[in-house]
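[Solved] Which block belongs to which protein?

Original post:
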Amino acid sequence: MNAITIVPAILRTTFEEIETDWNKVASAAQYIHVDVIDGVFAGEVGFLDILQLKELRTDKIDLHMMVQTPGDYIDEIIELNPARCVFHIEAFTGKLDLPFVYNTIGEFTSSEMGLAINPETPLEQLEEYLPIVQYVLFMGYKPGIANQAINTTVFEKIKTFHEKHPNIRIAADGHVGKDTIGEYTQAGATILCANTAIFSGENPIKNMLDLELLANMVD
């Protein structure tokens, strides 16, 4: 099994709050997941000033775009050039919209492009787009709201996808912690985005490293 990567996930509404959390883990984290929420596609309005993230190390930014109109953000993402960027398949209404957004960003950035899928969305909707993405992000609950109960169907969903596409990397976001990490990794996820399990304690770096150790011990 591939090594597991724990990615601290930041869900905040202001850059100052993001920067505070970022500085708590940046020295140890390979990537840091930053949520961008428009209040239409998911949750309440969150952080939207993508270009302000240029003040951080963009080669660590794992940008999670929870937005209703992905095409509106192409120029900003190209200018930011994050390490990773993921949109939700549910946000695209036309068959040509997703390829246009992904191919355009891919042409003008070095960003790895992921595609996120919500718990209720059929796996079949991913199939035609897999050739243009580098990984798939499975949500463990409805996006945009922290501390929800996990939708346990996500484990079987990841397992089914992994068995069919063993060479496509799988990320997971949603109640990633010591009590779920074994199920996520056994199902096939190797990129685990954790918010509360890392930032709720006094030592976020230790929390992150403890999760990473635990994840890589799972058979």
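(Second protein starts here: sequence line, then its structure tokens.)
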Amino acid sequence: MNILLLCEWESSEVGIQIRNAVQDILEQEGHHVQMIILNSKELKPCVACLGCWLKTPGQCLITDDEANNIAFQQINANAIMLISKITYGGFSADIKAFLDRSLQNIMPYLVNYKGEIHHPMRYKRFPIWIVVGYGNVSNAEKRTFTILAERNALNMRPAKHLAVTVDSNDELVKEAGNILKALEVGV
């Protein structure tokens, strides 16, 4: 399985350990992993011009960074994994910048989906969506993070999604079975 692993530009020892452990776990199971370390200083922020919806459907008008290339890789992967430090219950700045620039992968219209109003899918399928949040944060922040990741999945509508939170690399190893199960075809 081709997995796109998106991580924030994180210099903490815990963040580096977790992203390396995720990559090792996936590769040991025979998955092809492409890791991209996002840097919100290089990935320009979304300017909310809606050009990716109206002027160049499916492509951001900002072309002097890697957002369009990453969005293309995202749609063509079998699974996408986001690894983010939990920041006040939300994503890190780097992951948030990527998510904002991923707007091009959904349609501008609104439809009723599971009794709620959401944007329809631009493409016939979206890769499996797995989010790993980490950090020594409160249980309330972990719950908020998990809910946020699941709400993002509702907009993208992958066949399967999973959100987990961990405090350390040791906890990640305990969650590895859940992550690998989410990647199993047909589960």
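Accepted answer:
You had them paired correctly. Confirming on the second one: The chain is about 40% helix and 20% strand.
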